[in-house]
Amino acid sequence: MNAPAKIQETNAEQSLNAQFDAIFAQTTQKNANQRKQAWDAFKAKGIPHRRVEEWHYTDLRSKMNDAFALASKTTPKAEALNGAGELKTYRIAIVNGRYAPKLSSNQEVAGLSVAETSGVLEAQLGTDDAMASLNQALVQGGISIKIDANAKIGLPIEIVRYTDGSDISSYTGTSVEIGDNAKALIIESFEGDANAAYQSNALTEVKVGDKADVHWLKLQVESPKAQHIETLSVELGAETNFQHFIYNEGSALSRAQLFLEFKGECTHAGLRGTSLLKDSQHADITLFVNHAVPGCESREYYRAVVDDKARSVFQGKIIVKQAAQKTDGQMMIKTLLLSDTAEINAKPELEIFADDVQCAHGSTTGDIDEDLLFYLMARGIPEAQARKILVLAFLSEAIEEFEEEQCVDLLEAMTRKWLHADDLVSE
Amino acid sequence: MLEIKNLHAEVDGNKILRGIDLTVRPGEIHAIMGPNGSGKSTLSYVLAGKEDYEITEGSITYNGVDWEELGADERAAAGMFLAFQYPIEIPGVATMTFLKTALNAQRKARGEDEISTPDFMKLVREKAKELKVTPDMLKRPLNVGFSGGEKKRAEILQMSLLEPSLCVLDETDSGLDIDALRIVSEGVNQLRSPDRSMIVITHYQRLLDHIVPDVVHVLSKGKIVKTGGKELALELEKNGYADYVDEEAA
């Protein structure tokens, strides 16, 4: 009689029920418990909607009309995978959620080991987010990457996550362990068949030791019809440098959620990114940065260029625990709106319990500066070209802070291509 | 030849120019002097084609072309150059990239071939040296971190590279020390030629010791109230603008 009103399950949720039952029937006993727990956690919440604060601006329940069938194992042609383009890398290919050794590098790299897994992650998640739980309930496969202590991996480690087919969904789980004093550059791409409609859900857990140096570039270039959900959970040791950059270009709907916790003192984390949105794209970047220990520094700098009827969502929360004295956290969101119908929702937040900290956040939104435009035009540069120059300049400022030259070049080339700015002189 | 006839212009509904007549022939240098708020900078923006600067009456023609028909970029390709009073900083745009883009955009608009990179580099280095623009400045983003003097030298470098036929210098002397004023003036004087017209806008006579004008105009409340030879600038330096401002008020 006083039972809570049950929200009616959506079409997508009903499809998920059937998918879970099928997966659960054939899973191993060990994974069964974890899958069941994850499924129960998901079921308790359902697909997130606008009344869930963390998902307020991305009403997935209304945007996800159906849950596509779980993708089966396929072997696409190697040429279909773009990854980091021309760069020489150690490639790890994940197709439809599963490790694809035939498309991956197989040479020995000292200090690096890569193994196929079920995708069910052993570590404790830094989140109880419903879509991360759903990932663990349905996960199709994954890998674990280990980088030994003191290993300096010279080649970029490239993880190509490819969804092969239309009207399918893929779930993948990845664990990454980076030892003390290790150094690595990871370039991760999310891509799929051009114009295919699919859903990809990736969950990645990263543990970084002390005194490590990690650069991590995520290229989100999914098909323009894709729905992309990625959850990245990161724990950092002491005196470590962790630099993360999201290049957000693909998907009809994308959500990147990053949960980062400082576990050791005097560590620096730089979280940056650019979103390039047009048509009716919806791109959400949501961060939770937890300063749990003293003396750490975090930078959260994101820029978005939003055209047509696209919408950019940024939510960033920096939490400074009582013990985390001498924390230095700076968050800045800058957005260029290129049309009257483009939209940005920016919600930077600080939650500070320590009294000796330096924290700031800010957000600016605007159109292209008319004075800058006039200056370029007064030198003979036609308006369309001048606008491209200014958009490129706006994004380049963020890109250059990533400080990995090969990635900066790659990002600038991708940005130029997006802008159709091949006519712009390069340096 | 530049011909301005009965030019009225306004910005955001504020009437600033109230009937300017001015003819500048090839090879001539005209100085426009006047107190603050007399409309000097507005005239330069109207000539360069800044949006929001609306011509409400009268006309501007340059070499027979109705200037109002052309956008700022087309005016530049047709020979117009405005040296800004406050050159704009553009982070993220490399100075060299900008210079090359501007030069090639103008060439393209005129149906000429693009300049090759080696030729361009050689050209910039030569001109930069004359204007004491250091290689370090050329490596920085456009005008970013430049001192006031460096910005003005960079403006004249652009002018010298783009080789315009109609130059408007908007208070190029403001913010310059004596040495920088000399360098900038020498740069401008080198560009004097029988087929190039210049309009030099300034508050002070000092600049006109270096860049000697053929004609001096006094602008007050959006109108030219007095025209004379270079000696007019000396008279203004001595007596100030009071005579002209009062005359208008009376």
Detailed description of the structure:
The complex is a heterodimer of chains A (427) and B (250). Chain A has 427 residues and is an alpha/beta fold. Chain A has seven helices and 20 strands. In chain A, strand 2 and strand 3 form a beta hairpin. Chain A starts with 10 loop residues before the first helix and ends in an 8-residue tail after the last helix. The relative contact order of chain A is 0.09. Chain B has 250 residues and is of the alpha/beta class. Helix content of chain B is 40%, strand content 29%. Chain B is built from ten helices and twelve strands. In chain B, strands 6-9-10-3-11-12 form a six-stranded mixed β-sheet, sandwiched between helices. Chain B has a four-stranded antiparallel β-sheet with strand order 2-1-4-5. In chain B, helix 4 (117-130) crosses helix 6 (148-162) and helix 6 packs parallel to helix 7 (178-190). In chain B, 43% of the residues are buried. The model of chain B has no long low-confidence stretch (mean pLDDT 92). Chain A binds chain B through residues 370-372, 374-383, 385-386, 389-390, 392-397, 400, 424-427, and chain B through 48-52, 71-73, 75-77, 80-82, 84, 87-88, 90-94, 96-98, 100-106, 109, 141, 158, 162.
SSE layout and pairing:
The complex is a heterodimer of chains A (427) and B (250).
Chain A: H1 11-25, H2 29-45, H3 60-63, E1 69-70, E2 90-95, E3 98-99, E4 112-117, H4 130-138, E5 141-147, E6 157-163, E7 168-178, E8 183-192, E9 198-208, E10 213-220, E11 227-236, E12 241-248, E13 253-262, E14 268-277, E15 282-291, E16 297-306, E17 311-320, E18 328-337, E19 343-352, E20 358-366, H5 370-377, H6 383-399, H7 405-419
Parallel strand pairs in A: 1-7, 2-6, 5-7, 6-8, 7-9, 8-10, 9-11, 10-12, 11-13, 12-14, 13-15, 14-16, 15-17, 16-18, 17-19, 18-20
Antiparallel strand pairs in A: 2-3, 4-5
Helix pairs in contact in A: 2-4, 5-6, 6-7
Chain B: E1 2-11, E2 14-24, E3 29-33, H1 40-48, E4 53-62, E5 65-66, H2 72-77, E6 80-83, E7 90-94, H3 95-109, H4 117-130, H5 135-139, E8 141-142, H6 148-162, E9 166-170, H7 178-190, E10 197-202, H8 206-210, E11 215-220, E12 223-228, H9 231-239, H10 242-249
